[in-house]
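Give me the fold.
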Amino acid sequence: MGRAFYEPAPDVAATAAGLIAEHHPDLTDVPIVYVFRTPASKAHARLVLGRALRVTGLRAFLVSLAAGDVAVDDDESRDHTFYVMEIARPEWDGATPEARAALVDHELCHFRIDDETGELKIRAHDLEEFNAVVARHGPWKEDVAMFLDACATHP
């Protein structure tokens, strides 16, 4: 697929700001870096439209170092973890405003504040299932049933 290129994504940040205010108030003060990726990456032969990432360890340290944010004598500066929302630029450009909002909302749902620690974490999807299994067996487990209920409430 070749080399990926990244650029700031102010349109994504603006969309996220509205969604955070309306649906994700726990993320109001969370610094998230919004970036476009060209081309989209692939996973299991499918395009990845977006990705929520937690950047830690050496990568986070190197970003902090390059930004001049590293204070060697400050113990609190040892954790340079930050969060990124990566969106596929070509797919964003071809999407409707509704699809863009749904994509950003989806990625924002991956970010969650841990109730016990107060730390930001990355959350997995609520549902992982195959269409064929649901077609053959119906809502055989709770997450599938909840997903189908959510679908039924949407006009």
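Helices lie at 10-23, 57-67, 89-93, 97-110, 131-137, 142-153.
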